[in-house]
Amino acid sequence: MPEHTSQPYRSPSGRSRPDRSRSDRSRSKRVVRRGLAAGCAAMLASAVLAGCGTAQGALQPQPGPSSPASPAPTTPGAPAGPTGPVSPATPATPTPTPTQPKSSQPSQSPQSPRPATPKPSTPAPQPPPSTTPPPPAPPASGVATSVVSSTAHGGRTVALTFDDGPGTATGQILDLLAQYGAKATFCQIGPQAAADPAVVRRILAAGHRLCDHSVHHPQPFAALSHDRQVSEISTARDMIVRAGGPGTKVAWFRAPGGGFTASNQQVAASYGMRPLGWSVDTRDWAKPGVPAILAAVQRELRPGGVILMHDGGGDRSQTVAALRQLLPWLASQGYAFDFPAV
């Protein structure tokens, strides 16, 4: 029997068939590599698309509580409400059920902004000190600030007043007043009252009254600074009170030369003194002569008037001589002697 040997397979066409085992392995490797590459590419594309979709969805506005086809009705003329994120629409129910699942973006009704908590106010900066004088103290109770030039009781009365004393003529004037039972008011200079307290006390003992006429009799008095006027008024008053002794009352202030202002009138009133003027000026300080002094009174006096004369500030012999004739004339005219109003 002949020895059998294997022969390569030949196709019907007569060609021999290559070794299939080696060729199949090479083809399998290529298929695996293509599959891996295709799978990686698919995974990468899927990841990119997923990421882009997520980002795009985040940037797009969320749907409102109603569909675009049927917007919620609004009241004509009503202002539009605030816009903002809202939760997706839910079925209309009378009241929300507590078991309703909450959305990842819970609905919040628009709220008006809360008012800011007021911060503690800081003290306002203080203005610079004023250069104008401070207002005087308020007037003492019951003391008027207006200038008085009439008697306290009116009618057929007259008030005699003497300025610039005490002086050398004061004693003679007191004697004449006592002789006719007349009362008078003495407007005194502070230092002169302090220099002659005995005369001041004699005036008070006789039932006459006192008036402040400043410290130095400066003129024009109204042109002085506010502080200087206050000092002239208050210091003279203190001097007169000390000269008169305990209980001395100074009821009026007469500005030198009649230099009154609203300010110094209020200062006087703050010290309990009524500003005192006059209605008859005899100008006896100018020494016009006894007839001129008498004529001024007879011409200008009206019932309830206040006569201005002087008992100090120089030679007052004409004043004393005129008073000696004036007192009986006033009595003959039916005048009673009074004090100025307060």
Structure notes:
This protein has a domain at 157-337: TIM Barrel, CATH 3.20.20.370. It has eight helices and eight strands. With 342 residues, the chain is α/β, with parallel strands linked by helices. The model is unreliable at 1-19 and 51-113 (pLDDT under 50). 35% of the residues lie in helices and 10% in strands. Helix 2 (170-180) links the parallel strand 1 and strand 2 (184-188). It has helices at 20-59, 170-180, 190-195, 197-205, 226-244, 262-270, 290-300, 317-332, and strands spanning 157-165, 184-188, 209-212, 250-253, 274-275, 280-281, 305-310, 336-337. Helix 7 (290-300) runs parallel beside helix 8 (317-332).
Keywords:
single chain; TIM Barrel; 35% helix; eight-stranded parallel β-sheet; alpha/beta; 342 residues
